[in-house]
Amino acid sequence: MENILRGKDYIETIDFTNEEIDLFLETAADLKYKFKNGIPHKLLPDKTIFLFFFDKSTRTRNSFEAGITQLGGHGHFIEASTSQVAHGESPKDMGIILSSYGHGIAIRHDLVPGEGNAYMREVARHADVPVINMQCDVDHPCQTLADLMTMREIFGKDLRGRKIAVSWAYAPSYAKPMSVPQGLITLMTRFGMEVTLAHPPEYKLMDKSLEIARQNIEKNGGKFEIVDNMQDAFENADIVYPKSWGIESLFHKPEEALEISKKYKNWICDEELMKLTKKDSIYMHCLPADRGHEVTDAVIDGPHSVVYQEAENRLHTCKSIMGLTM
Ligand code: CP
Fold first, then answer.
1. Residue 273 burial by CB count (10 A; 0-12/13-18/19+): exposed, middle or buried?
2. pLDDT tens, position by position, 60-91
3. pTM higher than 0.90 for the full model?
4. Domains delineated in the chain
5. In principle, which of 20, 56, 62, 248 could form an S-S bond with 16, CB 3.0–4.6 Å?
6. Which residue pairs from 211-217 have beta carbons closer than 8 angstroms and sit at least 24 positions apart in sequence?
7. What residues does ligand 1 touch, defined as CB less than 6 Å away?
8. 296 Cα–ligand 1 center, Å
């Protein structure tokens, strides 16, 4: 295996070149083949990764735990609320001490804008092992790498000219982080895609992510536009990725945020909307999805949906990230 990424933190996809992203994906494809064919691939024998969660998870926790086991190592789960971090232990101490016990530190800290990315970069500043972002307030680079892998499996490596609709959708369950749409617009604009972002006025993404997306278009071609309705975004799309996210200034005020979101209950991905897309378009969602709110069962369980392939690719991509960096 190539070793150019060994020791590097994996915090945002913008920290990596397109060639490095390609290497992660080529390695993920190789690991997927080996996993499916029962070929051993213990790239990290006896290595330990600490999996440090400030928030809940199904896919991320389990893909990392299963993935590190399959690579020959061990994943050690830490819940922030039952660690001394809950009593104020510093990111510096976490970085130094966990580095001395193992070989990698992965962190999910995604619910408070302005906190998670800064926290993990501070851990990384003091850690002498790689720090992996399992989702922060800015980016979800493990998810978007799996998303890119899924798009390439379906449409081929050359995604130039493919239209992706990244749309807000209504969800009453909780104020979901902004990191998935931000990760999508900053990554997919690097490959010549036509990215249309749709959201109601209150749901603007962070300025820095919007700026990066615009700069990517200038450098790489493609298109980036923002519209205020799902219909325009879905028109002639190859890929639709409708999901909910919260309002940047209201993550501390969930009741107020929920009231605002109720104005937009009609932002649901249904079969009528899917008719606007290309015939062979795909429906994606990072999951969990609020069924009946973000998307109808007919769409998420229907012929356009690739959500289970996408979720499966979380395993292969996180193994690639660990295998190449740790
Ligand atoms: N998509 C995703 O990150 O899923 P989890 O929140 O279940 O980890």
1. buried
2. 999 999 999 999 999 999 999 999 999 999 99
3. yes
4. 13-140+314-325 (3.40.50.1370), 143-310 (3.40.50.1370)
5. 20
6. 212/14, 212/185, 212/186, 213/185, 213/186, 213/189, 216/186, 216/189, 216/190, 217/189
7. 57-60, 135, 143, 286-287
8. 20
